[in-house]
Amino acid sequence: MPGEMVNFSSNGATAAGYLSIPAAGKGPGVVVIQEWWGLVPHIKNVTDRFAGAGFLALAPDLYHGKATQSPDEAGKLMMAMNIDKTERDLAGAVSYLKSHPNNSTGKVGTVGFCMGGALSLYAATKNGNISACVNFYGGHPKVQPDLPALECAVLGLYAERDGFVTIASVRDLERKLVGLGKDYEFHIYPGVDHAFFNNDRLEVHDREAAEDAWKRTLEFLRRHLN
Questions:
Q1: Is 94 within 8 Å of 108 (Cβ atoms)?
Q2: Which residue, 156, 158, 154, 155, is CA-closest to 189?
Q3: What is the distance between the alpha carbons of residues 108 and 134, in angstroms, rounded to a whole number?
Q4: Which of 45, 46, 60, 110 is the most buried (most CB within 10 A)?
Q5: Which of 177, 50, 49, 24 lies closest to 104 in space, CA to CA?
Q6: Among 225, 5, 22, 200, which Cα is nearest to 113's?
Q7: CA distance 107 to 90
Q8: Buried b / exposed e along 75-113 (16+ C-beta atoms within 10 A)
Q9: CATH number of the domain that 42 lies in?
């Protein structure tokens, strides 16, 4: 069933997000973090897919009502973000799901795409209430995660032909996680581009890689949130 817009406490006020509840009524919590386009139909669809897989899923509207299909405008929106305020919005979303009566385990994970992938990892280094972190090809020039503070496991899913989140940057992150003794899994999909999971962007979408990444994501979240 489709989700609905809800409000939750954040930054001393309220923020909005798209909530989707599993058919069984209850499930572990997952915060779905948008790409630089905003809370667009694709992200709402992914949130519904998580609910269909048994998760209580919430996609916070980090642009507070703004969204775009223009890469230039998306870049401006991304760079204009106040990262501290955004982290507090994400913390509000995590708290909302953690205390939600439909959360079956009391646990919450984060899953983000592109900009949202970077924010997923960043939030996990700032918030001990996050029990699992999934990072789809995450990158943001203003987001620097505090890796020594990371407490949860991380799943990273990357594209070999990504010109934005390069393989060199992925290997650098991997070296840092290894050096810190963190729990992580990385998978690099050969021959695919950045945003391969986004089936609304047919110029980069790769069905085989997307299906495998979805399977890995569900297995990872079920392992750490149940």
A1: yes
A2: 158
A3: 12
A4: 110
A5: 24
A6: 200
A7: 15
A8: eebbeebeeeebbbbbbbbbbbbbebeebbeebbbbbbb
A9: 3.40.50.1820
Pairing of strands 103-113, 27-33: parallel
Q: Which domain holds residue 75?
A: 4-225
66: exposed, middle or buried (Cβ count in 10 Å: 0-12, 13-18, 19+): middle
Give yes or no for a contact between 94 and 128, defined as CB atoms under 8 angstroms apart: no
Indicate the pLDDT class of residue 130, thresholds 50, 70 and 90. very high
Alpha-carbon distance of 185 to 89, in angstroms, equals 27
* Residues 139, 103 contacting (CB under 8 angstroms): no
Q: What is the mean pLDDT of the chain?
A: 96
- For residue 1, pLDDT over 80 is answered with no
43, pLDDT greater than 70: yes
**pLDDT tens, 164-207?**
999 999 999 999 999 999 999 999 999 999 999 999 999 999 99
% pLDDT > 70, the chain: 100
